[in-house]
Write a structure and sequence with these properties.
Helices cover 82% and strands 0% of the residues. It is mostly helical.
Amino acid sequence: MIVLPVLAIAVSGLSIGVLCVGDPKRRRVGSGRGDGQGKSVRRIAVALACLPGMILAATGDVSGFLGWVGGCSLIGWGITLAISKFSAGRP
């Protein structure tokens, strides 16, 4: 049953990407504008990022939940690294 944790990581990864792109602090530093997402959009994205993990935990899939935690950590670091290099103009 590796399909469910992989799907959960993908859904959470999309939400993490939305949070990273619309981060007001990152936008202020990068372009001088602080127009990020509103509070409601950020809260919905956080809820959508956490929901797959809660579902895995509620179903009792411990290995799937731990895989989701690790996968989300790796995706978060990867997205942050990619966005920072892209916004800085480095190769």
